[in-house]
Amino acid sequence: MTTARADAGSGSESIRVFLVDDHEVVRRGVAAMLESEPDMEVVGEAGTAEQTLARIPLAAPDVAILDVRLPGGSGVSVCREIRSDHPGIACLMLTSFADDDALYDAVMAGAAGYVLKQIHGADLVGAVRTVAAGGSLLDPASAGRMLERLREGTPEPDPLAELSPQERQILDLIGEGLTNRQIGERLYLAEKTVKNYVSSLLSKLDLKRRTQAAILVAELRSKRR
């Protein structure tokens, strides 16, 4: 990956951008605009959530511009997975709708910015540079609503609400780094039974790998301190 965050202002390195939108015309328009900038390079595109997660590792972008609504999954869930597996990639959410719930979810998923598609081209270019440099931004109107919601103290939903007590216990042991065999020995369960529990809890948490589950446990523990 380039060191674009450090050097974007000097022009010595390009900011590597990956575009995600199910409308090819939108992708082409944004790509043409960004490619016209001397410090930007579009390194990949995708039209679905599945394509994005498959192509992102090879493209190694600095910034991923994600449409909130995608075939096969939401841009917010894709953002969450990108931030989990590739924390060095900044995610900029781009949407046609001022959706407060999607805005809140995007921020909670680790998005660095959230802007509407009505944004002027120059402002979008500036937004890409901002998040590539490690900054964060929101559309002004969206930022106001976000702050208002936070002031109201809206409680964050329990991400483990759908898990059974047994699944929660197994999730904690995954967080400790135990294998299925070791978990089975600890809880007096067959290894195959543990494997079934792990598959179930990953599905309920919308996760694909136990590594992500371990990261979730670490995040939850840090919040309790």
From TrEMBL:
Residues 16-132 form the Response regulatory domain. One of its GO terms (molecular function) is DNA binding. InterPro entries: CheY-like_superfamily, NreC/VraR/RcsB-like_REC, Sig_transdc_resp-reg_C-effctor, Sig_transdc_resp-reg_receiver, Tscrpt_reg_LuxR_C, WalR-like. GO terms for biological process: phosphorelay signal transduction system; regulation of DNA-templated transcription. The keyword Transmembrane helix does not apply. The lineage of its organism: Bacteria, Bacillati, Actinomycetota, Actinomycetes, Streptosporangiales. Keywords: DNA-binding, Phosphoprotein, Transcription, Transcription regulation. This is LuxR family transcriptional regulator. CDD domains: LuxR_C_like, REC_NarL-like. It comes from Streptomonospora alba. Residues 156-221 form the HTH luxR-type domain. Gene3D superfamilies: 3.40.50.2300. The modification 4-aspartylphosphate is found at D67. Pfam families: GerE (PF00196), Response_reg (PF00072).
